[in-house]
Fold these 2 entries.
Entry 1:
Amino acid sequence: MRKAATAALGLLALATASGGPATAQSTVADQQWPPAGVSFHGDAAAPDISGLWLGTVMAPPGGLPANNGNKTADGRPPLYLTPWPLPYKPAYQKIVADRAAAAKKGTALGDIGSRCLPFGLPAMLTNKNYPDEIVQTPGEVTFFMYGTFPIVIWTDGRGHPKDLKPSYNGHSIGYWDGNTLNVDTVGINASTPMDGARDPHSDKLHIKWSVERVAPDILHTHITFYDDDAFTEPVTTTNIWARKTTRTWEVLDDASCFENASAFSDKTPEPGFIKF
């Protein structure tokens, strides 16, 4: 009881000091976070995009998202990849056909997330079921995305390593142009899906994307996928990210994938945790 009271007083003092609400009715869930006047922005030469942001998920044109109960997390329209169907070369058209046939039999080929592996950067840009935390420090911008390793975008002028080993998120470098962070990502493991539909790509995938702050609470993330092995032309999309300022959007679930993944466990998931 004493610990709970102390915690409540601490939150009340924090809200009062930051100009936030300090009423007896305020709760942790409805408090703005970070408190007014506090920022994690670390680079005076760049706009401040630090904070909690939620994009949206992809769907086929005229259709519904394939996951998350066939809806987006906050009710906004889904995004679409262009052109559609994706412009695959014959070898990759076969992979898509094989995955579709397996899905009809109840097997999710290409779904590395169900095996408790990181989803990878491509899908994390096109399929936003959960908010991301952006943290800025001089020389880098870090995206803490749910279900994968942190994505570090180096803005200190370095290039891509010459001996780069493919990974789930690849290697990202970027630079600021006004209110836009331009990013170049290479070295992505071919096992990662392109999107929520588990569309494939090769290890030659090259992503050029930009994060443009168009309003205080809106980011436009423009994405172009280049893959000379898999595609006959580039694939593009724009994901609109909205700032989330209430703490109800904080992701408190640590995923606990091996406990809750249907591919590994038959037991009932722990209360409050996500069933994969």
Entry 2:
Amino acid sequence: MRTTYLLIAFQTVLLVGQPNHATAKWTIFAGTEKTDSPSAERPTHPTAGALRNVYGIEVTPDAIFFSTVDDHSIWKCDREGTSMIRYAGTGTAGHTGDGGPALKAQFNKPHEIRADDDGNLFVADTFNHCVRRIDAATQTVTTVAGTGQSGFAGDDGPATKAMFDQPHSIVLDGMGGIYVADTRNHRLRHVDLNHNLVRTVGGDGRGRLPEDGQSLKSASLFGPRSLAIDGDSIWLVLREGNSVWKIDRESDRITLVAGTGKQGHEGDGADPRLATFRGPKGIAVDSRGDLVIVDTENHALRYVDFAANTIQTLPVGHPMKRPHGAAVLTDSKGIDHILVSDSENHRVLISPPRN
């Protein structure tokens, strides 16, 4: 878990807690809540620059990155939350710019973003059906997987000649590879960056739920939408499957964590596996190893406490509108703060200290 030091000095919103929760003050970390505000072409305060339908969030030791799907861009914010600027993309959709500077490259509805230990940024360029890399030192863009055409092809061959269908999420495996949620192909795929090879590690292309405890290799995956990773596990959100699963990185077994597979918004205070979701689209792991789940079509943020074996809806306290991404910032005192992209309100919210 990366550590990010925060100076929280942003516009605040008073949020009313739910029963058994204390009243908390959440913060508008970035975004103006309007689409007609100026974008951050030059450094500006994060709450003064427009984030047009913000989706992905990535935290690094020295920055926070956001992706926006309505202007096809990546934004970089300093860790103190005092300055934000466009980092990649021109503001218009396209698929250009490989081999050149990120600010002149075109993306098409980039969703989730991830950074490696050297600060290189990887982008799920979703509607270009590929994964692209932005070099930290030169800001040069390259494609590391996908041809730019939708489809399913290329397993056991060069990743740059393989075909994906709207890959929404990626995570780095820490060993020179990337897992890709190949959403519309109902598959989880792995890209070996060192050898430019791609393979399917889970999913058979059929839109149905896996069986609890089965081998990932033989499992079906119904709309893999979002990924998180730690030393032991890969955490997988199934969008159409309305559920969250854990993949053991050693045994390769997939087990149910939360959700029955049915649509709804029930189950708070009880076993997470008996809860219902409606189109979940984001996930993050906090410093305790518990889960933050973005329950998008319920306009809610859910929290799985493994020690208590319960799920709760977090008291955000005001209406969110189709939130998508989440990340956890852990400060110098080991205290977590949750970031959530309140997508169609065009802003990022941050929680008060959580532990």
